[in-house]
Amino acid sequence: LLALEQTSFCDFEIQLEIVHNALHSWLGGRGTYSMSNLDYSAYDPVFFLHHANTDRIWAIWQALQRERHLSFEASDCALNLMRQPLHPFDDQTQNQFDVTVKYSRPVDVFDY
Predict the structure, then answer these.
(1) Alpha carbons 25 and 70: distance in angstroms, whole number
(2) What is the mean pLDDT of residues 46-63?
């Protein structure tokens, strides 16, 4: 499980989410009333086992972070990148549209 090898929360979260989502698909298949269907997955008893295991993996990662002497409570995700403009939309020599130049920073669009 690559998630447990990650030392930053954001990298851990991405790896854990990949496994989490894949298990929903693998267990649910193409069934309408199954783990792969967002509207019905919580009705499947295996849903609770799956999410309990997800919580267990998260707790193990937190314990590993303590052993590594690294933070297990802080997030270093890409929120700081939300304030940086998206290229080439911020470049008026390449982008002739005032609206996309004005809203080239995600923070301006998503109001974070």
Answers:
(1) 33
(2) 96
